[in-house]
Design brief:
heterodimer; A: mainly alpha; two-stranded antiparallel ribbon; 11 helices; 73% helix; globular; B: alpha/beta; Rossmann fold; Alpha-Beta Plaits; 7-stranded mixed β-sheet; 4-stranded antiparallel β-sheet; 12 helices; 14 strands; 28% strand; elongated
Chain lengths: 272, 319
């Protein structure tokens, strides 16, 4: 039966670029505030790597102990830096995403005219900001208390590499966030994060690990990030930097692909 | 499709230029989740300026209907249209305000921050002060969401729905779980929106709520619309009485009494559903002096739905 059909003036969403940019900024700002006030996230992501570094790099540092061609406090900045970056990125993306999709908040946002990409960008920005904080803290502590010699340019390069290294793990976090439930997210992340860090030589320098584990480490993304960062302070394994970049980029693409599958599966559930 | 223009005539309280124009509709819309048919061939329209209540028990398909209107789900068959477009488009969404059932909202953001963020998504949002005023949140604007009471939380979600100054609202069980006072407060706020000329579809499983707010009530059960009409008419058709008693009378005798809709035997008791209790009771007591265990209660909504479906089969009725 025919219903009253009315024509409506075409509604065009005229959102100037500046306005879109403002949305992205606000989304990131409030994501940051949400997480900053969430002590479980803000404290643990910063405290753990810093505490480990202070204990193993500064307190237990014997003078003149040389590791990988450099001093222990110097060597441990890139490795605990990579560890901190991983934590900030994985927890920053995966736990929030898993909770928000599992408990209905994402649907509220999706029902609004929010650009969907702003939501993901905010999570990645959050991971990068906290990564920057962690790495900067380690560098400052090392220079102040560990006698670490790091010219400004090298320090900047080290921080830049590690913060850029946040991206593959943000991608990994998005992938995880799409496939774990809101209650199991943190446990799942820890289950992946901690063994992965250990096996990549982020806790104990890689050359002190058994030969077999050193071989396996080549297949683990955190290893490649740590090696890139170690290269800046002269503590790397002297492998080609390109190999490391390629590994990280490849890993990012795989994770983004998985996250995309999750996104489509979710939308499929909704639109199916 | 049933024309329901008479209701707008009965409620001449709000008159804006485009009253009566269909602005949101489902046409023969079905939605399956696996083997479950959440909606079956539903035809449903919302007209400019009206407040429609979609009334039904849990699992009736109310939330699914709202999700179709919001573009959060796509109909398995049939079409959905809001302002002549697909609600998946951001353009259409700028004119929609939504209040959904959500288990957890980020708790460490303050009320005004939540509103500020959602306001930024819309081209012409209300000023923050106005949103706060309409939703009654001025005094708690600096509180974090996690510190709020249930009623306050619902009001924040309500504020997020209205901050973009949309033309149509979809409110999915806005007052579920609220105490009486919070519920009435939210009702007041919903009425304010109607006074501003907005259009509202709200879902509820409280007949009382539909009665208090709506111009038109659409009753849905098991994914199908089973009745539609003014709240008064829906109420009249569902306001039966349930009589329970132990009696030696035969079921057939009781069923033949005037006003009796339905009789069931429940162990040694009879369960009688009647439009009015008094005439039936008079007859019962006269015919069976040893009648005992008498209990009279209002028929619940579930029974009302049952009565509606039984009375009219699967055909949709206009009351």
């Amino acid at each position: 039966m025919a219903t009253v059909s009315t024509t409506f003036a075409t509604i065009k969403l005229e959102r100037p670029f500046s306005k879109t940019l403002a949305i992205y900024f606000k989304e990131a700002k409030y994501e940051f505030l949400t997480r900053l006030r969430l002590r479980a996230y803000s404290l643990s992501t910063i405290t753990f790597p810093v505490m480990f570094y202070v204990l193993f790099g500064l307190v237990l540092n014997q003078k003149d102990a040389a590791v990988g061609g450099t001093t222990l406090p110097t060597y441990l900045i890139p490795t605990y830096g990579a560890f901190g970056v991983m934590g900030a990125s994985l927890f920053g993306t995966a736990s929030g995403l898993a909770a928000e999709r599992g408990l209905g908040w994402l649907q509220v946002k999706r029902a609004s005219p929010m650009p969907p990409f702003a939501y993901f960008t905010a999570k990645v920005a959050l991971g990068m900001i906290f990564s920057t904080v962690v790495v900067s803290l380690l560098v400052s502590l090392g220079i102040t208390f560990g006698g670490v010699h790091l010219p400004l340019l090298e320090a900047a390069k080290l921080i830049a590499i590690l913060v850029a290294g946040s991206l593959p793990f943000c991608a990994m976090g998005l992938a995880i966030g799409y496939f774990v439930g809101p209650n199991s997210a943190v446990a799942t992340i820890n289950l992946i994060y901690l063994p992965l860090s250990f096996c990549s030589g982020l806790w104990v320098p890689i050359m002190f690990l058994p030969k077999l584990m050193q071989q396996i480490a080549h297949f683990l993304p955190p290893y490649h990030l740590a090696q890139l960062a170690l290269g800046v302070v002269g503590g790397g394994q002297h492998e080609s930097n390109w190999t490391h970049w390629e590994a990280l980029i490849g890993f990012s693409l795989i994770c983004l692909g998985v996250a995309r599958l999750g996104f489509q599966r979710d939308e499929g559930k909704m639109y199916g | 499709m049933i024309a329901t223009l008479q209701e707008t005539q009965e409620h001449p309280k709000k008159q804006s230029g485009n009253d009566g124009v269909v602005i949101a509709s489902l046409r023969r819309a079905s939605k399956n989740f696996g083997n479950v048919q959440a909606l079956r061939q539903v035809d449903f329209t919302v007209r400019a300026g009206e407040l429609v209540a979609l009334l039904g028990p849990n699992g009736a398909g109310k939330t699914t209907a709202v999700k179709l209107f919001l573009g959060l789900a796509k109909p398995t068959s049939g079409t959905v249209s809001v302002f002549g477009g697909d609600p998946i488009n951001a353009e259409v969404r700028t004119r929609i305000g939504a209040m959904l059932q959500v288990a957890k909202v980020p708790e460490t953001l303050r009320v005004r921050e939540h509103i500020d963020l959602f306001s930024s998504y819309y081209p012409k949002p209300l000023p923050l002060a106005e949103t706060l005023a309409v939703a009654g949140l001025q005094e708690i604007k600096d509180r974090e969401f996690g510190e709020l009471s249930g009623g306050q939380r619902q009001r924040v979600l309500f504020a997020l729905a209205l901050c973009g100054d949309p033309d149509i609202f979809f409110l999915d069980e806005p007052t579920v779980g609220l105490d009486v006072e919070s519920r009435r407060q939210l009702w007041e706020e919903i009425r304010k929106l109607i006074a501003r000329g907005k259009t509202i579809l709200l879902t509820t499983h409280y007949l009382e709520e539909a009665d208090a707010l709506a111009d038109r009530v659409v009753v849905i059960n098991r994914g199908e619309i089973i009745a539609e009409g003014t709240p008064a008419k829906i109420k009249a058709s569902t306001a039966g009485r349930r009589i329970r008693c132990v009696s030696s009378l035969a079921i057939e005798t009781v069923r033949a009494l005037p006003g009796v809709v339905e009789v069931r035997r429940d162990r040694d008791a009879l369960e009688i559903h009647a439009a009015e209790a008094e005439p039936v009771l008079r007859e019962l007591l006269m015919r069976d002096p040893r009648l005992s265990g008498l209990d009279v209660s209002s028929a619940g909504l579930e029974e009302a739905f049952l009565a509606l479906t039984q009375d009219h089969g699967n055909a949709r009725v206009t009351l």
